[in-house]
Fold this sequence. Notes:
Elements: H1 2-32, E1 41-46, E2 51-53, E3 56-58, E4 65-70, E5 83-85, E6 93-95, E7 103-109, E8 113-116, E9 128-133, E10 153-154, H2 233-243, H3 252-255
Parallel strand pairs: 9-10
Antiparallel strand pairs: 1-7, 1-9, 2-6, 3-8, 4-5, 4-7
Amino acid sequence: MNNDWFYKLKFNRSMKKLLLSFFVLVATISIATGQNANDWFITVWKTSGTAIKFPAYQVNNGYYTLKCVQLADDGTEIAATMHTYTPNTDGYEIPVGLPAGKKYRVYAYGDGLKQISFNNQWQNRDDLILVEQWGTTKWKSLMYAFHYCKNLDVTATDKPDLSGLTSLYGAFYYCTGLVNANGSIAQWETQTVTDMQYMFYGDTLFNHSLAAYKITANNYYMQSIAGQSGISCENFSATLDSWKTQAVALDRKNLYVGEFPKHKS
Length: 265
């Protein structure tokens, strides 16, 4: 009996060590391939058809990974519906089937993911309802990224890596559902951006000060950055008070101040 107990104890300890080594290996592989939880660009869609046309443009023929999973009514993922894809074309279509009206969470990550734009890949722009996480993608361009995505809101608490891009032209153009309640967009690091024209144009629910944006002499192209938006007089004033201390001339030419909405006092 004593020997049996000893060998069982030794076996259990060996199994624990083996399992621990296995989980460490899995974690290491996950980190090495860049697919840990914080890496993914995560969006939520409510479908109107049988497919989700993901509006990414492949860069230098690079590849990236898409994962798509259906959400239950309470927002939890239905694990059995998870599918993984390796897109080989711009505007890759994820087949989701019928019925329409279901919600899906889409994860995207990889070296080939550098640019998204609904300007040409417009077919599903009304279906996009949330950006939940920006991840670690180093974006090359977000020009017209969410062009006319009228049902979109951004709940992400992290910030996109903008260090590799210069244009945010029309990034949220006429995103009339954009509220961004946590104000994370107003904290973006814009030092390298040279063109922010029409970035929030027509976003009637968006009301945040952009005072935290770093505006340098290179950030000259800001025409109508928030024209016809919901930015209040107070937040607009706070924005200008901050920007006027930075190295750019603010005038009607580069802001089109007259296009900002007039709010009652």
